[in-house]
User: Fold this.
Amino acid sequence: MTRGWTSDVDGHTPPPARRAHAVRARIDELHRRHAAAPVDVVSYYPPEAAGRPEVFGLAGVHVSGVRVSVGDSAERFPLQSISKVFTYALALEDNGRDATLARVGVEPSGDPYNSITFDDAHHRPFNPMINSGALVAAALVHGRTRAERVERLVARLRAFAGDPGIDVDRTILAEQLRSTDRNLGLAYVMRSLGMLDGDIEDTVAVYLSACSVTTTTDELAVMGATLANGGVNPVTGERAMPAALVRDVLSVMLTCGMYDAAGQWFHDVGIPAKSGVSGGIVAALPGRIGIAVYSPGLDGHGNSVRGVNLCRDLSEHFGLHVFTAARPDAAFT
Ligand code: GLU
Assistant:
């Protein structure tokens, strides 16, 4: 195993140019290997994505701002559940840690993302990375109207990504609003139990608007790097969220971010991350790097098959697991 994105294969520290070349070659080689590997895909989202199973992007952004992109990293896709991270971040900022925690917990549920189960002992959804908790987080985002809440969320996503053009894809949103019975049902059940208040359709629309924001693997890696960098976008220098709340977000990503495979991910990859059914994954290693992967074939948990496999290898080869001991303070190139 090499440690850091900077060591060469023998663990020596070569001169910067050679080192950068060696790191790039290793990343390219891992991407190629997983692009060629036959994978056991269970589903694609949306189903049209089955026609383009080969799309496969990888990007990394170091907190110094140094970037690397491989494959289809400029391909656009909707954030889907990855947006839950940023909705939660804004809910925390708008309401503070204690008031947010009173409404949504930080406990892994072990259930699928859309399950209708709650933390009955505390009278709240288990965590903000599953739909019930993300709906509560969406309801906690401040704004006088639905449009204002969506606009505030999109503005934050722009700051995280460093792209003023990032926006809700209206076609994707309309499609999601048409087939969202389960989210509406979840929200109504939560309101009947007193876990959620306000207008249900507004809450579901705010949540799905964030899910329908499209991005690229390149941009998503910057979003991850912003979380890794204490909330400051390392490319633009803009603060996207308060520093004091970043650890709250990274903690729920680490324990709850990968659907009901969060434990396996923590064990194998060990980087705070969130996936979405579009096939994207964002990962943020505090103080070091943001990583994004996009490949639309999903496993039975809803995680990108190639995305998970590639991240596992990246973590192994570059010593990225948070519990990797004696990690040298390395640069990206
Ligand atoms: N729009 C999806 C839903 O709430 C998000 C699914 C996901 O990425 O997990 O049903």
Observations:
- Confidence is low (pLDDT under 50) at residues 1-11, 329-333.
- The longest helix spans residues 16-36.
- The domain at 80-211 is CATH 3.40.710.10 (Beta-lactamase).
- The chain has twelve helices and nine strands.
